[in-house]
Amino acid sequence: METVDNHACLLQNWRFLSTAALSGADQMRLDAECLNGVEKEHLSPTLRFFRFSEPTLSYGRLQKHEDVARLIPEKWASVQRPTGGGVVFHKSDLCFSLCWRDGQTPLPKKPQDQYRWIHSIVLRALAADVPTRMADCRDAAAPEEPFAVRTCFANPVGFDLLKDETKIVGGALRCTRRATLYQGSLQLPDAPAFEHRLQAAFQKVLS
Questions:
Q1: Which domain holds residue 105?
Q2: Span 161-186, mean pLDDT?
Q3: How many structural domains comprise the chain?
Q4: Which of 20, 32, 42, 182 is buried most deeply by CB count within 10 Å?
Q5: CATH of the domain at 17
């Protein structure tokens, strides 16, 4: 019984990872495997930072490649994410994902609250150098694009992060029966330089 208890305790401790630049397919596979491992209690909750090894368009799990194909710039790769949301263009951005099992503290229980909680940590981490605010209902205008080709960073929703009127942080969730995956992107010219600061901000509240 002690071994089981120790194993359960270890699985409550967060892992903090920084992955080398890889293809979109490899990065999405790693997040999908993490979600599966966390759900089956093979892996601990995980925060991971990553970048793409080549310019890549990613699109949500409810979108189709044939619909977004015309949006893919020449010589760009494309990949479908395991999370929802719209099209994201990845070039010099910093991506990050969090994966946790239901009931994991200090994550809120409701998806909307989880999204806001994650972005509030990013907001605090950026505040010293980037004038950033959290979007509210006044910023979330009805999108002009149909969902099939909707682009994430052209359409702020509640709790996204904005610099002036430009969306710089957006994300999407995937909820399974026992676990949740969040995938987000920080879109600033020097976004990778913020990785250490973001990790420190998350470690402060997750450790």
A1: 2-206
A2: 97
A3: 1
A4: 182
A5: 3.30.930.10
